[in-house]
Every structure is written in structure tokens, then in C-alpha cells.
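Question (not urgent): is this output format expected?
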Amino acid sequence: MPRLAEGFVNELKGRIDLYDVVSPYVQLKKSGSSWVGLSPFSQEKSPSFYVHPDKGFFKCFSSGEGGDAISFIQKIENLEFTEAIEFLAQRFSIPLQYSEENGSSAKPAVSRSLKSDLYELHKLVAEWFHQRLFDEDQEAQSTRKYWLEDRGFSLETAKEFLIGYAPVDRFALGKYLNTRNFSLPVLKKSGLFREGKGKELGPAVFTGRLMIPICDKIGRICAFTARKLEQTPEWGDRKSPKYVNSPETPIFEKGNLLFNLHLANKEISEESEFLLVEGQLDAIRCWDMGFRTVVAPQGTAFKDSQALLLYRSKPKGVVCLLDGDNAGQKAALSYVSIFLKSGLDARFAELPEGSDPDQILIEGGKGAMQRIIDQARPMIEYVIRQKLPDLSTASPKQKETTCQWFFSSLAEIDSRIALEGYLEQLSRLLGVPIDALKSDFLKFRRNRTPAYRKNAPEKENQSDESDRLTIVEEDLLFLLLHDDRLASPLANTLDMSWVDTRPVSGRILAKILSETHAEGTHLTRAQIEDLLEDDEERRTYHRLAIQEMDQKETGLSLRLARQCVNVLFLRSLKQREDFVFSQLKGADNDSDTLKKLSQELRSIRKQRSQAPLLEFTN
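Got this back:
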């Protein structure tokens, strides 16, 4: 795979402004030299998310997250490091720079990700399928007839959603891709082909079907839904299913995607609601008819991870359009639990039994759909009506059972304000005293707490010492990152064998000091970041770099660094002493060996008062 050129990552970060990276996700307000907003990673009412464009760092105090532009995109878009680089380069129109294949750089460049190759492949395949839709053969003509006449969509809509056609010939796609520069492992992991013999590529998964590309939340094609047509080959004795979806791959997880979210996100605001429908063609019809915030799950049950995707867009809420049959009602109840836990307000609209949004819009137009949306009920009211159709005759026990159903979801809510609001709604709609309802809820929450946690002290009552426990390498790395004057003295004073490189902070410290010793001067932030090799090292570095250091006391960093060096020095002596003791046990009656080991012990003990003194260089 091609590798990004050395230094490109730092060049990329130098050419983008962190404010521009974050502002599409967080509404930021100026606060001194920084910007502040509500956390995109957790629910909060008071802003605790800070962006420091001049330093290139962000810090979220409610979730503990922090880092630079790349780590922000990694977290918010759920991307790997190389994917986040590619995402930022595309967003800010910065050409990716790749190293020469046979370059002799001493430092490894960043590999182009497998996922990047798979996204490129899916884009190319989607375009090929789309071209096949407009061929002049009988298969393409039949497919266009289905799209235009049977489904009532336009060719403009087909172009907008890159609708395509997979030919009946199951080897046609493979033949086309043989002319393109994709490796066999990438093709085999794409989910587009069946298992082949040995190193051969198997036949295509999709044949004789209408192809609907599925995009991730930032608009990259990652999979397909394929609709059965008249010419679709049957599966032996079994009938071919109406819909076939791509299998899960490194770039496609059904539970982490919502169809059309990449387009709906551009239309959503704090004053508008997402429209959740069940199928992709329903979503396309809604979009076509002006309902531009429509999304759909990928043919599976709605999940917490999908609700989180919606929550991050900060909508007013979600309107769910579900079938009015038993299956639709059952699905609605599972959705309510997810919405409550995620912090999303939702309303539920029941469709006439046997109909779907596509049919309603075709027969009744936009007005018919809008009337159904306007009649959608808030989720608390919807559940109560489902469980207690005739509330006037409901017994106290039935009301208690309904409350208990809500309690399991309400107990997962972090926001005290949201919890109070839902309990008040429940109290009002069921006609039960709020004090009694709160009392029962608190009892429920106590009873579901595991026994081993009931007597555990609250976090805020625990000693702060547990939060302060660090290793000396981390303390020294923190000081080094906040005082450049320490770099050269430490590199020339510290014996690298004293540094424990098993913890992440130790590895980073050793790299910085070794490079500083070789260069003869302290490293810039960009040079340090270029040394970091994985996400764990980058997280540790950003966490320590973001933390503030109290510089009020003159000479504080030097004094603390001296203490750290002394600890490392004494620890190394202790390790040597322990080793000598282990040899003494095996020396038995060998007088010469015993004498040498005893002398070494005395030498070690004399050195305890001879720790090297760290001094700033002039």
C-alpha cells in the first residue's frame, strides 16, 4: 500500500485551523483566547468543551477527551488515525503526499489504510453499477422501467443517489476490476465477491439487482442494498430474497450507520427533527418529496449506536414513522428505551396498517405525510397509550407495571434535568402523585444496584490520591513537555537504561530524549508528534500536553525534574542491588564470587548519595 510522506501529518495540521475542524460539530463561543461550547462527546447543560486554536489542542472536561485536530476527528467520526488524516485532507482540499516506494527514510511513514482502499473501491463500483443502469441492453431497460414506472422515481433521483444495476453475469464486475489497480486481499475483503478457489476471485455477490449505495455519516460509499428484479437469478430451490445487503466489512457495520444521514445532517438544525423510516426506498421517496431530514436503519433493529449518531447532530428530536401492525408497535417500544438513554426526544406516528411512507406519498402527496407527522405523539404518551389503551379504566397495578417499564430506561439517564422532566410527564399522563412516583423510582434504582456497589463510597468522597498516582516517567515527560529548557540537560544527564519503556509515557520519554541527544537541541512539538507511532502514544502525549502547569513558583520545573531524576537513579541502583542479591543466593561457598559480589554491593550503596545533579545549560 502507498504510504504518506514523512512530515505530511504535521504539514496537514499546520495548514488547518482547529476552530474550522471543530465548529461544524460544536457551536463555539469566544472565551478569552480560546473557544468554548457544549461537549460533543457527552450530555451536558453547561459548556466544558474548550478549543485552543493557537495551541492546536482541544479539551473536554466532562468526558476527559483531549487532543489535536486528528484525534478530534478520530473520536467524533469513529475513524482510525490514517482515515482521519485522509478525511481532513479531503475536507480542506489538501492533496495527500505519498512517500517513494523505495525511499530510504529512517522513520516509517504512515500507511494508507485498508479502509481507504475499500472506500475507493466501493466508489468505483457504485459508479460502474450506475453506468450499467443506462446501458441499452434488455437488462438495463427492464431495470429502468422498474425504477421509473413500477416505483415512480425519476432518473434525476437515480443520479442523485447513484442508483445502479448489477448485471446478471456474475463475473462481469470481476472482469471490470481486473483492469483496475486493486490488490486481491482488498477485493476479497470488500464483501462484493463470494469465496473463490485459492487465489482466484469468486463470483459477484450481487447479480441482476437494482443497486442502492449506502454511505457512511460523512458520505463515503461503504456498502450496497440490492433489490430483486424480474431478471434476478433464483437461489436453486429457494426463492431469491427481495433484498440482499452487503455483508459486514472493515468499513461497514450495520449498527453504526443510518441510510441518508450524510445528506440529512446538512439539513438538520436545533429547530428541526429527524424523520426515521424503515427502508431505503422509503427514505429516498421522503427526500424526493421534500422531507430532507429523513434517515433509515440498515434493515436491522435500531441500536444505541445509531441513536448516538442522531444525538451528535443536535436535532430538536426524532419523529418515527412505523407500521401500525404489531411488529411496528413492538419496534416502537424498543426505540423508546434507546431514545430515553441517549437523551433524544422522540415522537411516534403510526401509519395505516399495510401502508408505508412510499405509498402514502405517492397516493396522498406531501400533505398526507405532513398530517401524519403532525399527529405524532411524544414517546411517553405513545407508550402509555400502547400499554393502557383505556387509561380511564386502568387499575393502580397496571399503572405501576407501566411505570416499572419506564424505570429501567430512566435509570440509565445521566441528566438530572431530563430525568425530572420525564418523571413529571409520566406523573401527569398517568395521573399519579409525583412524590409517589419519584419514591418508587428511587426504590427501583436502589434495588437494581449490584450488592457489591451499594456500600462503595461515592467518587467525589474518595481520596484524590488515586487520581494522582502516576509513574515517574510520566511526571518527567509532563515537565519536559511544559519546559523546553529541560530537554538538553535531561538528554545529557539521564542514563537511558534508567527509563522503563514498558509504560507508554516511558516509551515517549525515551524517544524524545534519544532524539534530543542526537540532534543536540530540544525538539519542537511537531518533531515530537512525528515520533509518536500509535494512538495510545498520541493519546498520552495529548493528555499531558493539554494539562496546565502552575509556573508561579520560580524554578519549580527544575526542582521537580531533579526529584524525578533522583527517583530514576535510586530505582536503577535498587534493581542492580536486587540482581546482586539473586546472584549471592546461588554463589554457595565460592569465596571469590562472594567477595566480588560483596564489593559490588558496597559500591552500589556508596553511589546512593551520588545522584547526578540536573542543571539548566546556558
